[in-house]
Amino acid sequence: MTTxxxxxxxxxxxxxxxxxxxxFGSVExxxxxxxxxxxxxxxxxxTVWHLGDFAAGASRPHCAAVFARLNGIKRLVRGNHDxxxxxxxxxxxxxxxxxxxxxADALGRPWRLFLSHYPHRSWPGFWRxxxxxxGHTHACLPDTSRSCDxxxxxxxxxxxxxxxxxxxxxxxxxxxxxxxxxxxx
Length: 185
Known about the structure:
Helix content is 26%, strand content 19%. By secondary structure, it is of the alpha/beta class.
């Protein structure tokens, strides 16, 4: 069982598809493509942390239909577009505003993570090697050596596993500001 992370799927969001995701052709094309990409990497027993903005502008029935088609044990960190139609979906646990968790990599090494819909310049556990995963920015902020955007726009419209996200952070040329000011990476 693998743990995956994603954000900003914006299922049913016609204005976003028209403005930023027009390559999908329509809201229906967008939603079908994201469902297919999700299910291509996530197995039914995998865990997916969705870091907010699951849907926007979609009806309750549409949200429920999309949710039911997505593989995995799904958990939500609430985003700014997640109203009751999203919050009341059958998440594995009640949605939260942020989360701190530890996930083991393939070698069993534990990684402390701080999950939030919004990017933080500093976060709980920052100086204790806690990594930060966020959404909201739609790939507008560069990754750092300790944080990255897991939103659909930044991740080829599919959830990513821990190893992939850690590799992105390791490859990032920037360090978080607090570290860079001290000459650290």
